[in-house]
Amino acid sequence: MENAARKPALLVAAESIVATGMVGTVGDVVRTRALTHYGEGLRQYLTIHLRSSVLAARALVALHERLRELEGNALLRSPGPRAHLYKLAREECAHYALEPVRETEELCWVEPKGDAGKSYAQALTRLRCELGGEDAELLELHHARELTLEEIAYVLDRPLDDVGKALDRARAHATRMLGTTPPSQLGGLTGAMQEAFALAPQPDPAAVPDRVRRALPAGTLIAERYAVQQRVGEGSFGDVYRAYDADVPGHVVALKLLHRPSPSEEARKTALRELRLIASVFHPSVVHFKDHGWYQDRLWFVMPWYEGETLEDRIKREPLSRGEAHAIFTALAEALATMHAAGIRHQDVKPDNIFLARLGDASRDQQRTLPVLLDLGVAAKDAEMIVVGTPLYFPPEIAAQYAGKAHKPKVTAKADVFSLALSLRNALEPSTQEHVPGTAIEAFIMHRAESPPGGPSAKELAFLEPCFRRWLARDPDERPTAEELVQELDVLTRPEQQRARRRSILRWAAPIAVGSLLGLSSITYVYLRERDAAHEARMRAELTMSQLGVESARRALLEESYQHSELTRQQLSERLTARAREATHLDAQLQRSRREQQELVGRLQTLAAELEATRRDREATVQKLNAQQARVSVVEGQLFDAEQKRAFIESELREARSRGKAAESELDELRTRARSMLAELDRARDETDAQLERASSLERTLTSLRQEKLRVELELAIERRKSGDLAERPIQPPPAPKSEIGPPPPADS
After folding, report:
1. How many whole angstroms separate alpha carbon 513 and alpha carbon 521?
2. In the predicted model, what is the mean pLDDT of residues 276-298?
3. Domain residues of the chain, as ranges?
4. Fold category of 214-497 in CATH
5. Which of 93, 399, 540, 601 could form a disulfide with 448 if both were Cys (CB 3.0 to 4.6 A apart)?
6. Spatial separation of the C-alpha atoms in residues 441 and 583, rounded to whole Å
7. What is the DSSP letter of 78?
8. What tens digit of pLDDT does each residue of 606-646 get?
9. Residues contacting 182, CB < 8 A, separation 6+
10. How confident is the model over 248-275, as a mean pLDDT?
11. Are 103 and 171 contacting, i.e. CB atoms less than 8 angstroms apart?
12. Which DSSP helix (H) or strand (E) runs through 654?
């Protein structure tokens, strides 16, 4: 029999909170926050055993009131606060079980996620139906609610040995139905039995205690400046109010008032030191503190008022696209990098603490989204995250602090990187978000300390798997810093960047390539044609020049021969005349060659002009293509704006539909309440009719008694009258009996 001997996470966290000086004792922390820590588990336990969420909510309120009446350290007595709470819850179940008639409802069980399969879900349903009431309660308390054997024995008021044997029998029965290695989220038979008794969680597990806590009334003036209008948010550490700044007419601010008071001057100094440190960090995505102070020993601070929604509300409607995620999470990573550079760790990064503020004018389609980190470390510590039961975004090194591990790694700023990356994964694919099956918080913490979550499972996001493996690594040293994460987030839009780069290259290269190809083809053709003509003319000119050179050599030779020859003047004259004719002929050929060369130059100039005209035509064509491309870019921009507008309209439509569904749900709830009230009214009418009937019967009895009284009084009056008449008559002596002896004696005798 397994039996957890380690200290519950609530007590470990309470001791950590006390060590910071924020509260006085461990008993104070446990007393004020035990129901918050175990609230969702108690709600599910009450709902399962009362078969009604309405009765469970009433029982939880009653439990909260009973908890207020306990003395300070009552919950710390053996076997611990969890056992005391579940014993009180069981007593509330017994109280409601005494009602003769009560409506039950179909419970909403959590469906297994991942690769579990339909057969596994059917096995869980069969287990819930076939187990007896005691066996089911034993398995639920031990596995889903994480009570130890000593705690269960205290809650059920049974001997410890009997509880152990009964739990062994129940587990053996469950093993026969589910097998030894069922595909549960946390692994093994224990995880399967946690999922078997897990109901769908409420949005706010601490909703009932928060309703008991009253909000500040409208008009409350804080620091003689901020007039409270209404409470707009209820958190585990403080309430957010919409308030008016009296010093700046028309200015609206968000005022957060923490739940916990600061019991000592040292606690105040610590809170203010953290507040001032965070206020010194400036980044658009880090919430800016404008003012602060103390109200009834509780810290308050003023922030800008944003219009918008949280990332948690956004992804409940639909997941983020990669483009949206890149814009949002790049800004958040930059904000974390700025905080880390100042030595500050956020400590609670999750979609519910990321606000998507809408800036700009929506009517002119000039609105943009600014992500803002809310709930900084001044409001919550790691230990308090354990107390409120929301460790879903804990990195392994923080989970190890509360999982009873001997080796506890140092917690650094990279814990924020893990939480931000996990928020990114859940924003891209909300179906991958983990849940705590059956509110088994401590089992989930141990699982997270050993097994970090994986990346997205969708095929279109498969290329991000290596990045998420690094961002969500168990070892903090393998993760990037927030500053490095800013650069690595570009991987989200890498496919679009590659497509845009290819489109850009094709957009500019295609017209230039076509024009260049046409121009090069024409130039090549003309060049080849004119090159052949010029080559032919050059050959003719060279031939002519060669002939002239030969003739000049001959003339020089003749002149030399004239000086040395013995020929006659007439012979020399004839030869010279013949050579002159040949020279004239060569001159004529040279003139023709020059004319041909000039004609060739003219044709080349004409071709150059034609080429220049072709070049100008090509430039004009390129300019036209550029103009057309510019028009295409404008059209693409208009198309993108239209798509953005359509997406915004669709988002508004989805939001309207969501509001409509919420209104329908609220209407159904009102109808249900109305039917319940009508049923109660009918019962009240029946009771009233019965009481009226009884009243009528009593009236008839009273009338009869009155008549009887009158008759008796009348008879009494008659008797009295008769008695009065008898009293008024003179008393006469009775007649004397007749005597034969003599006359009667005288009256005086």
Report:
1. 12
2. 86
3. 9-208, 214-497
4. Transferase(Phosphotransferase); domain 1 (1.10.510)
5. 399
6. 118
7. T
8. 877 888 888 888 788 778 877 777 677 667 667 766 766 77
9. 120, 123, 188, 189, 191, 192
10. 81
11. no
12. helix 569-728
